[in-house]
Amino acid sequence: EIIAALFYSNDDILIIDPEGEYTPLIKALGGTVINISSSSSHRINPMDMNINYADDDNPLNLKSEFILSLVEIIKSSPLMPAEKTVIDRCVKKIYKDYILNNYDEELLPNLSDLYKELLNQAEKEAKDIALMLEIYTKGSLNMFADKTNIQLNNRLTAFNTRDLGSQLKGLGLLIVLDCIWNKVCQNRGQGKYTWIYTDEIYLLFENEYSAQFYYELYKRARKWGGIPTGITQNVEDLLKSDTARTMLSNS
Hints:
By secondary structure, this protein is of the alpha/beta class. The protein is 49% helix and 10% strand. The chain has helices at residues 2-7, 23-28, 59-75, 81-100, 111-119, 124-137, 166-189, 208-221, 235-239, 242-249, and strands at 12-17, 32-35, 156-160, 194-198, 226-230. Strands 2-3-1-4-5 form a five-stranded parallel sheet. Helix 4 (81-100) packs across helix 5. The longest helix has 24 residues, at 166-189. The protein starts with a helix and ends with a helix.
């Protein structure tokens, strides 16, 4: 299917590859493999957001929802209402200049900006979240703290997250998924379709927020010229998730 889409259309094809299994195929077809790991030079900013990020007039709402998903994966437990409130508040503050200046790339915030803004808040919850983010911004797991340095110019691109390790696998998949969504938004403006393949999709359903984010993207993508495909052998794992069951019933 990937080969057919590559040779018989002008569409873009993006693959999330948690096990590194697609690398030989992608290289043989002249595609690009982006390695996401602490030892790789490739960087993705999870705060990336363009003006077409959402259907409504305020793409910041969708980005805030994504950041909540990201922090919950880091926390490994559900966020409390107060934690959601301070995160949402900080997200809106750090994007203010970027949005007011017509989405100027120079003013695009990164994860370190969120960390600093959390430290400026009075609530204990904000300090606790900042402490959780410290290792991802100033510590040894800071591969998502910088500005994005990859270009999705090749029509065939795979994101290899194999070397992220089990602790970072869910987080890395979510960030890559958001990066792909930004590309879908860009392609929509150019009238181009985007094929999206997510292998080992069950990994995204291991917590509520990443499952909900993927579910919303899965529903929205078709209206935005996206053609999403989720791949897994672990069907029983999907059946444990109400969100995944809803997706399966509508497929």
